[in-house]
Recover the amino acids of this structure.
């Protein structure tokens, strides 16, 4: 079982005597030398869905931290500055238009959360999905990322 911070280079596959399969927790397998695994006959699998909701929530949390300038205000307060709310420009996300690049599992969850929690409009782009990819989700699919 490998995680994102694990590295499985070719030298590890050469040493592996009892290995039968490699399971990567999460989506990507870029930390695994797939050529070496295949050469030694070790199948490599991943688990793309279990963390999707957590990743979507983190995406939203980071977006809100940016729009509300959380880090900047925190640094100012910790530095002894007086922060006057009316003089602090931040943006509410309620009713805004949110752009989503990619229209796979995590991006769909993010879009659903923005729509449901903040009544946002969603503009999405993904050159690899069909026009009806999110047929049950109110959104605008754009032909290009711009």
């Amino acid at each position: 079982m490998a995680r994102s911070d694990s590295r499985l280079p070719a030298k590890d596959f050469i040493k592996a005597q009892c290995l039968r399969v490699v399971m990567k927790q999460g989506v990507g397998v870029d930390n695994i030398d797939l050529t070496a695994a295949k050469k030694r006959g070790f199948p490599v699998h991943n688990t793309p869905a279990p963390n999707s909701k957590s990743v979507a929530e983190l995406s939203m949390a980071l977006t809100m931290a940016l729009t509300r300038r959380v880090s900047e205000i925190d640094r100012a307060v910790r530095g002894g500055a007086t922060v006057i709310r009316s003089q602090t420009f931040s943006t509410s996300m309620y009713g805004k238009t949110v752009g989503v690049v990619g229209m796979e599992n995590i991006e769909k969850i993010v879009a659903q959360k923005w729509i449901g929690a903040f009544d946002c409009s969603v503009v999405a782009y993904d050159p690899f999905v069909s026009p009806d990819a999110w047929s049950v989700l109110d959104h605008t699919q754009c032909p290009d990322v711009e």
